[in-house]
């Protein structure tokens, strides 16, 4: 019960909600204050008798505006038990014979969702990747191309556009066998197609070395103090004209920070954690070395410790 103003009693009275009729009734005079109200809370139903699971589940899934039927079509699955096996399998065969224009999209969206889950990406990135793929697919020009590379490239572009970039190597690790070269080609193709659709270049978002720093440091198990120093150092490094990729700069900064700490990390471990080749890290370190005293925070390492770093 709760209080509401009753126009008949001329005061605040307790009211009763009749959920079956959708009525709000005054408990004192019986006046119906509101009728046929809509309950906007979540609708739950339990399928405990059917699946042995006591947890309630929502009635129906969310709609998907990228699919022609909104993603609300019925799919006949194989039964768990023997009862009704013949009937359901026959219905399933008849359903498969029917043409479903969204079948390819549904499979593609499932693949993107799987890759996103394996990378720990948020739902907004997955949705953006789905949208990019749908726009490319609508142009009917992707036939004959490597589907796995195309989906991986959509995810790569979505990460860039949502300011949560991932390296091509990270995307490649979940791309069902697609190589870095294939994903790179697919990315260029998608950018070109979307550019033709809009009549202008596609914004990909600028990559900064700091975008990768916390994740790379986490992969190496670095301390909070070392992570903070690495983030400050990589921010300072942007003030200098270091012509290296942001990922290479991030790896080189991590190498410098770990060399100044008690927990030194081998170059091989940094290469594995960042996906940057050992030779590339060495060359990036050479470019950073002249500026080391200016980019390393004074609270993290003394000037003598910085000068004691091995020259490249």
TrEMBL record:
Any one GO molecular-function label of the UniProt entry: translation initiation factor activity
Alphabetical UniProt keywords: Initiation factor, Metal-binding, Nucleus, Protein biosynthesis, Repeat, Transcription, Transcription regulation, Zinc, Zinc-finger
InterPro entries assigned to the protein according to its UniProt record, in alphabetical order: Cyclin-like_dom, Cyclin-like_sf, TFIIB, TFIIB_CS, TFIIB_cyclin, Znf_TFIIB
Chief localisation class: nucleus
Highest taxon of the lineage: Eukaryota
GO cellular component: nucleus; transcription preinitiation complex
Spans through the membrane: none
Domain TFIIB-type: start-end pairs: 2-34
GO terms classed as biological process: transcription preinitiation complex assembly
PANTHER family, per the entry: TRANSCRIPTION INITIATION FACTOR IIB-2, TRANSCRIPTION INITIATION FACTOR IIB-RELATED
Stated family: Belongs to the TFIIB family.
Protein name: Transcription initiation factor IIB-2
């Amino acid at each position: 019960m709760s209080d509401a103003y009753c126009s008949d009693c001329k005061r605040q009275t307790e009211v009763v909600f009749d959920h079956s009729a959708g009525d709000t009734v005054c408990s004192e005079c019986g006046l119906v204050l509101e009728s046929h109200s809509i309950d906007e809370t979540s609708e739950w139903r339990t399928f405990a008798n059917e699946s042995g699971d006591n947890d309630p589940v929502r009635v129906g899934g969310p709609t998907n505006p990228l699919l022609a039927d909104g993603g609300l079509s019925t799919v006949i699955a194989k039964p768990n038990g023997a009862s009704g096996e013949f009937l359901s399998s026959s219905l399933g065969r008849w359903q498969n014979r029917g043409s479903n224009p969204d079948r390819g999209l549904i499979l593609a969206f499932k693949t993107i969702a799987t890759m996103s889950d394996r990378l720990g990406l948020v739902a907004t990135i997955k949705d953006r990747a789905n949208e990019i793929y749908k726009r490319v697919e609508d142009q009917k020009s992707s036939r004959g191309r490597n589907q796995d590379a195309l989906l991986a490239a959509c995810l790569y572009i979505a990460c860039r556009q949502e300011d949560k970039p991932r390296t091509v190597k990270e995307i490649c690790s979940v791309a069902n066998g697609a190589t870095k070269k294939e994903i790179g080609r697919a990315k260029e193709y998608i950018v070109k197609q979307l550019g033709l659709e809009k009549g202008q270049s596609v914004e990909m978002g600028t990559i900064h070395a700091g975008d990768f720093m916390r994740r790379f440091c986490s992969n190496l198990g670095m301390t909070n103090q070392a992570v903070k120093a690495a983030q400050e150092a990589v921010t300072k490094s942007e003030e200098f004209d270091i012509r290296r990729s942001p990922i290479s700069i991030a790896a080189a900064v991590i190498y410098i920070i770990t060399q100044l700490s008690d927990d030194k990390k081998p170059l091989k471990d940094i290469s594995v954690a960042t996906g940057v080749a050992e030779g590339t890290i060495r060359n990036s370190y050479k470019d950073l070395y002249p500026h080391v005293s200016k980019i390393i925070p004074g609270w993290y390492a003394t000037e003598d410790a910085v000068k004691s770093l091995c020259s490249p």
